[in-house]
Design brief:
Length: 285
C-alpha cells in the first residue's frame, strides 16, 4: 500500500494528462493517415502517407516554411542580443532594480493577441503611429505600407514577438548572471582585467547553458508565432506562417486529415531543433 500511495496521489494528474494530452496526440496521428474533410463527411477513408506527400509537394507549405524561417532568423538575432542587454542592465545593483525588473516583465504578461493588436496600430499601413510620427517630422511625404510587403512584414512580426518574449528570456539570463560567484570578478580585478575581459572570459562562458535555454525559448516562439501574425496581416496566403497555414487548412477548410499531418511535421521540426540544442548542451558539459 505504501508503494502505491505515490501513484494514487499522482493519478488525478495522470488522468488529466492522458485525456487532454496523450489522447489528442495519438488521435491527431491517426487523423493524419486519413482523408478526413468535414465538408465531405461521407468520404472518410484511410490513405496512408498521402497527406504528407501532398504537403511536401505543396508550394504553399514551403512558402509558409520560408516565412517561419525568416521570422525565426530575425527572432534569434534580435531576441538573443536584446535579452542579454536587458539582463545585464537588470543585473546592476541599484535601488531601482526591483522596479525595473517588474516593468521589464510586463510585455511578457500581455496576451499574444493583445500584443499584436497594439503593434498593429503602430505599423498600420494608413495612418498608424509610426507613419504619423514620420510624416510629422518630414521624413516621408506619404504613408508607408510596411505590413503589405512580405519581407518587411516578417521583420515586423519578429520585432513584435521579440518584444513579448525578451522579458522572460532576460529573467532567465538574469538568474544565470546572479549565480556567477563574485569572487571570480574580484580575482580578475586583482589581476588587472577590464570589463570587456570579464565579460569575455568569465560572464559569457558561465552563461552559455542559460543562453542555450534562451535559444530554445526563442526558437519555439519563432516557430509557433500565430496571434501576432494574424493581428498584423490577417490570413493572407503570402504572409502565412506554419501555424497560420495549419489553422487555415484545419479550421477554415475543415480538412482535418491534412491539418493533422501539418501538425506532426511542425512537431517533428520543433523536436529536431530542440534535440540539436540539447545535444549541444550535453557536448558542452
Amino acid at each position: 500500500m505504501k508503494k502505491a500511495k505515490p501513484y494514487l496521489f499522482l493519478s488525478p494528474m495522470l488522468v488529466i494528462m492522458g485525456v487532454f494530452v496523450v489522447y489528442p496526440i495519438i488521435r491527431t496521428l491517426l487523423y493524419s493517415f486519413y482523408r478526413l474533410k468535414l465538408t465531405d463527411p461521407t468520404n472518410v477513408r484511410y490513405i496512408g502517407w498521402e497527406n504528407y506527400r501532398v504537403i511536401l509537394h505543396s508550394a504553399d507549405f514551403y512558402r509558409a516554411l520560408a516565412n517561419s524561417a525568416y521570422i525565426l532568423a530575425f527572432v534569434l538575432i534580435l531576441g538573443l542580443g536584446a535579452s542579454l542587454v536587458v539582463a545585464l542592465m537588470l543585473n546592476r545593483q541599484s535601488r531601482l532594480s526591483p522596479i525595473l525588473t517588474a516593468i521589464a516583465i510586463i510585455p511578457w504578461a500581455l496576451p499574444p493577441i493583445v500584443n499584436g493588436i497594439i503593434w498593429q496600430f503602430i505599423f498600420y499601413p494608413g495612418y498608424g503611429l509610426l507613419n504619423k510620427l514620420l510624416l510629422s517630422f518630414g521624413f516621408i511625404t506619404h504613408p508607408l505600407a510596411l505590413t503589405n510587403q512580405r519581407l518587411t512584414l516578417m521583420a515586423i512580426a519578429a520585432l513584435v514577438l521579440v518584444f513579448r518574449v525578451v522579458p522572460f528570456c532576460a529573467i532567465l539570463l538574469l538568474a544565470g548572471l546572479q549565480a556567477i560567484p563574485h569572487e571570480l570578478y574580484e580575482a580578475s580585478r586583482v589581476d588587472g582585467a577590464n570589463t570587456r575581459q570579464n565579460f569575455t572570459y568569465i560572464t559569457l562562458p558561465l552563461l552559455l547553458p542559460h543562453l542555450t535555454v534562451v535559444l530554445i525559448q526563442l526558437t519555439m516562439a519563432g516557430l509557433n508565432i500565430f496571434d501576432e501574425m494574424v493581428a498584423l496581416s490577417g490570413y493572407r496566403l503570402e504572409s502565412q506562417t506554419l501555424l497560420v497555414y495549419n489553422y487555415m487548412n484545419t479550421f477554415s477548410f475543415l480538412n482535418f486529415g491534412y491539418g493533422s499531418a501539418i501538425t506532426y511535421l511542425i512537431m517533428i521540426l520543433s523536436g529536431l531543433i530542440g534535440f540539436i540544442y540539447i545535444k549541444s548542451m550535453a557536448g558542452e558539459d
